[in-house]
Amino acid sequence: MDIPGLPARRAALHLIDAVLRRGETLDQAAGGALAKVRGDADRALARAIAGEALRWRQDLDTLIDSATKMALAEDAKARAVLQIMLAQVLRLETPPHAVIATGLPLLMGGPRRLAHGVFSTLMKREARLPAVPTLPEAAATRWGERADAIAAGLVEPPQLDIALRNPAETAEWAERMGGVSLMPGHLRLPRGSAIDLLPGFRDGAWWVQDLAASLPARLLGPGEGKRVLDLCAAPGGKTMQLAAQGWQVTALDNAKRRLERLGDNLKRTMLEAEVVLADALTWEPEEKFDAILLDAPCTATGTARRHPDVLHRISPRQIDEMAELQARLLERAAGWLKPGGRLIYAVCSLEAAEGEEQAAPAGLTVLPIEAAELPEGLAPTAEGFLRTDPGMLAEVGGLDGFFVARWVKD
């Protein structure tokens, strides 16, 4: 059936199914789900539909259940189709007739009349979503008293943050690109910018990096030629930061393809680093480092603004597994530091088990993070750590959720 726009909607359905049934990330699922979708615009539309359906899933289900006499099964295909139909109307402002024309064919041989009836009933009621998405109960419980603020920070996908190779040129680039800067070396641009067409991209003047993600490397300060190890380095945002700050960087990761991206980014920005393909759990350095940045593998729940799949696929088991891996990496990293060396530990996670509950390895002492090192509106915790979440800096567009600790070797 050759219906314009139908492949994008079918792909969105496959993306959601991959997240909810197989526990895949949207990025992992994209290769297969988008294979038959032609054109960048339709691929982007499929991602947008799936993302909004996942972001507002709890509230979309509430609407659907309000218009059915008997509740649809949670995994019923008709429920998933209605989710993407409603997400288009209520979030992407797609005309209802276009939604019907591209939604009901997804139920060929199934309950099309039921889906049409539910959708029509909700349109007649002028159904609306709440101002803030409702979090899945498990996530809301884990995030405690900050849950409501975090939910408010998830209403919209984030704007585009970039990190400048030369922070001294912040004002010049802000004027040239029409961006807003929240601290030297940072610019925030409108969402939807074509990255490779923006001024300075081909010249390597900047790279894409969320404001929160840029803070761990900033907290190491100027390198002055000293040696730093960037653990779990790919795709390279922190490696480029450290090199631009004057550090002699060793960038280690166990993912070959992601390291190739790191190499491409270094070449584009004309920055240098020693790139090592190895497993941090078995690798041993020839000599110790003045500083180490461990941006550890994590559940990435702090990236829910741009990756709403994490709201639905992260379980306590995954959190525990990640926390155990992080502790092993921390212990190894601590052994590679020179006396007086500094270790930055960072995770883009909102989970306390991956952040506040991670104990300092033996022989390390907290080097407190100072408010003067952070963007206006952020402050260190009483323990001298940094905790950010999507509900912070809301008045200027928010930021990802991160936990950052800084320790010094005795």
Sum this structure up briefly.
This protein has 410 residues and is an alpha/beta fold. It contains 15 helices and eleven strands.
Structural features, described:
The chain is α/β, with parallel strands linked by helices. It folds into 3 domains: 6-124, N-utilizing Substance Protein B Homolog, Chain A; 159-209, 2-Layer Sandwich (Alpha-Beta Plaits); 211-409, Vaccinia Virus protein VP39 (Rossmann fold, 3-Layer(aba) Sandwich), CATH 3.40.50.150. Helix content is 39%, strand content 14%. It contains 15 helices and 11 strands. β5 (248-253), α13 and β6 (274-277) form a beta-alpha-beta unit.
Question: How is this fold's topology laid out?
Answer:
Blueprint: H1 6-22, H2 26-33, H3 40-55, H4 57-66, H5 77-90, H6 96-103, H7 112-124, H8 137-143, H9 147-152, E1 160-164, H10 170-177, E2 186-189, E3 206-208, H11 211-218, E4 227-231, H12 237-244, E5 248-253, H13 256-269, E6 274-277, E7 289-295, H14 310-313, H15 316-334, E8 337-347, E9 364-366, E10 386-388, E11 402-409
Helix pairs in contact: 1-2, 1-3, 3-5, 4-5, 5-6, 5-7, 11-12
State the CATH class of the largest domain: Alpha Beta
Beta-strand segment tally: 11
Per CATH, the architecture of the largest domain is: 3-Layer(aba) Sandwich
Distance between the termini: 69 Å
Instruction: Assign the CATH superfamily of the largest domain.
Output: Vaccinia Virus protein VP39
Q: What class would the helix/strand composition place it in? A: alpha/beta
| Helix-strand pattern | HHHHHHHHHEHEEHEHEHEEHHEEEE
The percent range for helix content is: 25-40%
Number of separate helices: 15
What's the overall average pLDDT, rounded?
A: 96
CATH topology of the largest domain: Rossmann fold
For the report, how would you describe the main beta sheet?
A: 8 strands, mixed
